[in-house]
Design brief:
about 140 residues; 4 helices; 5-stranded mixed sheet; Nucleotidyltransferase, domain 5; globular; alpha/beta
């Protein structure tokens, strides 16, 4: 088995809500993409980063993809919570519609379409080069 295609993602926001950015860094081929929204939240930018990470997978034929996030919200949402949310018509344990449902539905479709992708949480601002690059991309609009 070949080593996985590795992608780091991050989202950032100045104020919450406020202007925000997202960044995606492919460690495998050093490609970078990023974006900005004028009025958003940090969680939306974290989700958007992972959604956009899949844009970098279309041209590659790796056996396995690995997407890294420093967001527990995104990591647990993908690996644990989304299954229950879907079974409960996208509602949480309090029977309320989940926040950011539009993005979670997009992400759910992508996760299902790429079953050979795994997700890993990494600690933010801890010297991980890939995470630091994604953070720099996400915060570029604020510099």
């Amino acid at each position: 088995m070949t080593s996985p295609f590795r992608i780091y993602t991050d989202g950032a926001c100045r104020g919450n809500p406020g202007p925000g950015g997202w960044g995606v860094y492919s460690e495998t081929d050093q490609k970078e993409i990023c974006g900005f929204e004028q009025n958003t939240t940090n969680n939306r930018m974290e989700l958007q980063a992972v959604i956009r990470a899949f844009d970098l997978l279309y041209d590659y034929q790796y056996d396995h993809h690995k997407i890294y996030t420093d967001s527990q919200y995104v990591y647990k949402g993908i690996t644990q919570w989304r299954h229950t949310w879907k079974a409960n018509n996208w509602t949480n344990s309090k029977k309320k519609k989940i926040e950011n449902m539009d993005l979670w539905r997009q992400l759910d479709l992508l996760v299902e379409a790429y079953p050979n992708t795994t997700y890993e949480w990494v600690r933010a601002h801890n010297g991980n080069e890939g995470n630091e690059r994604a953070d720099k991309l996400a915060t570029a609009p604020f510099r």
